[in-house]
Automatic annotation (TrEMBL):
Signal peptide residues on this chain, from the entry's feature table: none
Single GO molecular function: oxidoreductase activity
Superkingdom field: Eukaryota
Protein name in the entry: Short-chain dehydrogenase/reductase family protein
Length: 338
């Protein structure tokens, strides 16, 4: 552990994986949201260099096949398994979890990377889900991953038994953008009012990213060392999401107001330095494997390092995190038993 290098803004996911190679070897890793040109893909690719098994997920089978092919082109020895996962649907999440629980292998690391963004909500999906009757961003970014994680707890515990000395990890990919929203509305969880003052799809997204941080913190507290959970800011990155926005000229107004992009949708680096995809996935890989983080379960990671000072006040209140957890359990009809 003492020999690990200091990671920073420009550290790449591959550099983190290479540094943690001895820890990754023999591990089984599940990464949600692994489309090409995204940080989930890069996370899966570098983990596959050393891991025993990397499970990639998505709701589009053809995209999953493309991801698998590209990973194997880069890492011929990679052991990849595809998993269909539609986080919008609680029933689909249950089906996917049942498939994973039928695997013979345990799961050492679960990375909740997949997310729906206001930036790509072009009206093709309903505003509310048919099962929970919640906003589609809330379903994909919070309720779906929460249920998926709960249902995979047996696999995480099995990993602890299979690999003594390694505490299983759950990683929640959040965003610094949570700072720009008003936080989680616990009185109307998952059901924002479009007529309310300050409502926008982007602010809904920011709230879900606050929820990711709160859930990671509360999970670590409740698990009490049985499972370690972390949240992170990957950085401002020109991923497939930005590519689609650029192609369709569908950037939310908040993005130019905040100063991430200009009116043409081109990156602006005055306020927010941009990272490459390779740099953007680094914090995820660090949260998944850097042994130095064992000392700070529940931490928020930025540039591969603990950055608790970056958590907005509306997201840092532990009592709100505890209430969010309890409300979510009630809404999905499942309680975690650590």
């Amino acid at each position: 552990m003492a020999s690990l290098p200091t990671f920073s803004f420009h550290t790449t996911a591959e550099q983190v994986a290479d540094s943690c190679a001895d820890i990754i070897r023999g591990k089984n890793v599940l990464v949600t949201g692994t489309s090409l040109n995204g940080i989930g893909y890069e996370t899966a690719r570098v983990a596959a260099k050393y891991a025993n098994l990397v499970i990639i997920t998505g709701y589009n089978e053809e995209r999953l096949k493309l991801t698998e092919a590209e990973i194997k082109k880069s890492v011929p020895s990679a052991n990849i398994r595809r998993l269909a996962l539609n986080l919008l649907s609680q029933a689909a999440v249950r089906d996917a979890a049942a498939e994973v629980n039928a695997y013979s292998e345990p799961i050492h690391v679960l990375i909740n990377n997949a997310a729906a963004s206001a930036a790509i909500n072009d009206g093709a999906e309903p505003e509310r889900t048919p099962d929970l009757d919640v906003d589609v961003q809330w379903a994909t970014n919070h309720f779906g991953p929460f249920l998926f994680t709960k249902l995979l707890l047996p696999k995480l515990y099995a990993a602890a038994r299979a690999s003594p000395g390694f505490t299983p990890r759950v990683v929640w990919v959040s965003a610094k953008g949570h700072q720009f929203g008003g936080g989680v509305d616990l009185d109307n969880l998952g059901r924002p009012d479009p007529e309310a003052e300050g409502y926008s799809l982007m602010n809904v997204y920011f709230a879900t990213k606050s929820a990711n941080i709160m859930i990671a913190s509360e999970m670590a507290r409740r698990a009490a060392g049985k499972v370690n959970a972390y949240s992170l800011h990957p950085g401002v990155i020109f991923t497939n999401v930005f590519m689609r926005m650029k192609e369709t000229n569908s950037f939310p107004a908040e993005m130019s107001t905040i100063g991430i992009v200009n009116e043409q949708g081109d990156p602006v680096s005055d306020k927010f330095p941009w990272k490459s995809i390779e740099e953007g996935a680094a914090s995820t890989v660090a949260a998944a494997f850097d042994p130095r983080l064992d000392a700070t379960p529940g931490a928020y990671i930025d540039d591969c390092n603990v950055a608790m000072e970056e958590i907005a006040p509306h997201t840092a209140d532990p009592s709100k995190a505890a209430r969010l957890w309890s409300l979510t359990e009630e809404m999905i009809g499942e309680k975690f038993e650590f």
